[in-house]
Amino acid sequence: MRRYSADDEEALRAAALVREWTRSGLLEPAQQASFERDLQVDVKRTNPFLRAVLALFTALIVVAGVGLILLGLGVNDAVSIEVITGLAALGCIGLAEYLVAAYRLYRFGVEEALGVSAVALSMITGTAVTDSLHLGSPRLPGLTATLLGAAGGAGLYARFGYLYAALGAIACAAAVPFQLDVSWPVQHLLAAAAMAVVLAVVRIKRVEHRDDHLAESYGWLQAAAVAGIYAALNLQLLWTRSSSTGLFYWSTYVAIWLLPCAALAVALRDKDRELLDASLSMGLLTLITNKPYLGWPRQPWDPIVLGAALIATAVFVRRWLASGPGGERHGFTASRLLDADRAKLSLVGSASALIPTPATTRSSSPSSEPGFRGGRSGGGGAAGEF
After folding, report:
1. How many angstroms separate the CA atoms of 35 and 33, rounded?
2. How many Å apart are CA 182 and CA 139, to the nearest integer?
3. CB atoms < 10 A from the CB of 239, how many?
4. How far is CA 191 from CA 171, 178, 348, in A?
5. Chain centroid offset of residue 292 CA
6. What is the DSSP string of 82-126?
7. Distance between CA atoms of 170 and 241, rounded to whole angstroms?
8. Which of 45, 55, 221, 267 ranks highest by number of CB atoms within 10 Å?
9. β-pair partners for 44
10. Could you give the CA distance from residue 161 to residue 140 in angstroms, rounded to a whole number?
């Protein structure tokens, strides 16, 4: 059961949309004030920067507190560590529940960090327990950690609605098969199957909640599940299977071409922005990993060719949409409607500056070496060079 009522979360979502529409010029400030008076919710919130700072400090306090207890008691045996971390996990989730109930905190940072800390501490406890049992399988602690991470993340999402917790749960669920002592093709197939099950469940929820406050979160989860299937099937995503061949290998090659196309078709049909972004990202990764899959050598000009092709495609699609009636075709437009889209583009542009570029090498020819040569005037430099 959700800790916040559906009416409160719907009002918060509507208020966020009203603010965004006002920033984008779709509403007047007077209209914004009128709408926000009707969307008042009795919860305490803060701005994103302070939220991140509070979450960081709370996490540091939890880590320091648990560490202080371990050091103060002189704990050095596995059983005591398991008990202390397990009790700390219960204490964190209990305190998060109390803060939400008593002070009505909503995305305030403190209760979020406590919830995430509870999941992390439970993973540490489970890993320590299975490791101390010495059951013979070296993969068992990792399997326990991923299972607890998946269950804990899903629990945080079901209770508090934290989208990042659900995304973490999907990542942990995808990692579970890689902790099993089976061959790597079976690991990849099991991971893809797990993500397919998640996709089926999330897809049903996405259709069910298409018009309420859960629509966006289920849209992100659906896109993450599709991306998880793709990541499990693309054996060249980390360039670790360059020498692999066989039916399974080439079947995954076909799959990484079909999956982005199928996702793109569904996204265009449903006008699903999250799935559209995921399908385009998967298509780009398919193009990048195509040569490694085929065993072709990479060339220095490959990024140039890919960039030119992407620019040409973007220009063509933009002009095609703009030439339609009213500057749109089938409900899609190239015009920027919301101010948030401009912020996202700025963020992507800033992130691109962080991509490392190859360092330029200096020429070692004698003509480029610094120094003074000759020096025949007035005896200055008569020794030839410095």
Report:
1. 6
2. 11
3. 11
4. 10, 8, 30
5. 25
6. HHHHHHHHHHHHHHHHHHHHHH-BSS-SHHHHHHHHHHHHHHHHH
7. 24
8. 221
9. 105
10. 30
What DSSP element (H or E) covers 327? Answer: none
Q: What is the pTM of this model?
A: 0.85
Coil vs helix vs strand at 377: coil
Residue 4, amino acid: Y
Number of neighbouring beta carbons within 10 Å of residue 47: 8
Handedness of CA 248, 251, 253, 257 (dihedral sign): negative
> What's the rounded Cα separation, in Å, for the pair 67 and 341?
43
C-alpha angle 313/317/322, rounded to 5°? 150
Sequential pLDDT tens for the chain (386 residues):
788 988 889 999 888 888 888 888 888 888 888 888 888 888 999 999 999 999 999 999 999 999 999 888 887 777 888 899 999 999 999 999 999 999 999 999 999 999 999 999 999 999 989 888 877 678 888 999 999 999 999 999 999 999 999 999 999 999 999 999 999 999 999 999 999 999 999 999 998 988 888 988 999 999 999 999 999 999 998 755 555 678 899 999 999 999 999 999 999 999 999 999 999 999 999 999 999 898 888 899 999 999 999 999 999 998 998 888 888 888 888 877 776 666 666 655 555 555 554 444 344 444 444 444 555 444 444 444 44
Decide: 121 and 136 in contact? Cβ < 8 Å. Answer: no
Residue 70, Cβ neighbours under 10 Å: how many? 16
